[in-house]
Structure formats: structure tokens, C-alpha cells
Write a structure and sequence with these properties.
The chain contains seven helices and five strands, in the order αβαβαβαβαβαα. A five-stranded parallel β-sheet has the order 2-1-3-4-5, sandwiched between helices. Bound molecules: manganese (II) ion.
Length: about 140
């Protein structure tokens, strides 16, 4: 396995990804995986902590569990969207409620995208790379 030591791959990554998730096993899995992919990951374990961390760290993107204690991911999303600093931050919802209408509820609350749980790690990575602005990733743009 060739692992070219480069400050380049690190500098391609923007500011932190905020993982909002209350399940310890999921937190560990996501943090391990995304860290290995070069992301700086911040964690919030409930909705209230999520709002505080968002204001503190201005994340490049947010992975948002929907079912959480204190404040669910839909309510957190509405609060964030009302904040001009966070109105455009990509929010990717993660929900185990694979029910019809779930996706719509996430998008209605202001989320950018949605993945059903359990989400494949490669799908989570793809969603992050899709929604984090290419300019902040520093990669070449394949504009047609
Ligand atoms: Mn949860």
C-alpha cells in the first residue's frame, strides 16, 4: 500500500465534519472511518450540544442522526437553518426510520440530504464529498 506522505491530502480537507449521534458504537465507527479518510471529526451527542458545537466550530458539513435525546435531528436542523451563519452548511440526515415520507420530513426541516441507517460508510463518505463545496476540497473541477 503506497501512502505518500503529503500535507496535500490533509490540506484538501476543509474544516471539521460535525457528527451528531447519540449511539457510542456508531460514533466510534464513524470517527475511525472518517479520520482515516483525512477528515477532522467533531462529535456532539445530543441536539443541544450539536447547536453549541456548530456555532463554535463552523463545520464544513454535518452528519445528523434524527433520533436523539433532548432534541431530535429535525428540531436541531430547524434551529441551525434559522442561524444565518449556518443556513447553508450541508446537513446530511441519518435515520433508522425507513418510512415513506421520512426523506421528505428531513428535507422539509432543512436538511441537504438523507441516508437511511444503517448507512454504509462508503455512502456517508460519498455524501460528504458530494456536498462539501469542491472549492474547499481543493480538487480539480470537472465542469462540463
Ligand atoms: Mn440516535
Amino acid at each position: 500500500m503506497t501512502d505518500t506522505p503529503s500535507s496535500n491530502s490533509a490540506s484538501r480537507r476543509p474544516g471539521p465534519v460535525l457528527l451528531v449521534e447519540d449511539h457510542p458504537g456508531n460514533i466510534r465507527t464513524f470517527v475511525d472511518y472518517l479520520s482515516a479518510k483525512g477528515f477532522h471529526v467533531e462529535v456532539a451527542r445530543d441536539g443541544r450540544e450539536a447547536i453549541a458545537k456548530c456555532r463554535e466550530t463552523a463545520p464544513a458539513a454535518i452528519l445528523m442522526d434524527v433520533q436523539m435525546p433532548i432534541m431530535d435531528g429535525l428540531s436541531v436542523t430547524r434551529v441551525l437553518r434559522a442561524d444565518p451563519q449556518l443556513a447553508n452548511t450541508p446537513i446530511i440526515g441519518l435515520t433508522a426510520l425507513a418510512m415513506p415520507g421520512d426523506r421528505e420530513r428531513c428535507l422539509e426541516a432543512g436538511m441537504t440530504d438523507y441516508l437511511p441507517k444503517p448507512a454504509r460508510l462508503s455512502d456517508v463518505l460519498a455524501a460528504l464529498e458530494r456536498h462539501i463545496a469542491p472549492s474547499t476540497l481543493g480538487g480539480p473541477l470537472d465542469a462540463p
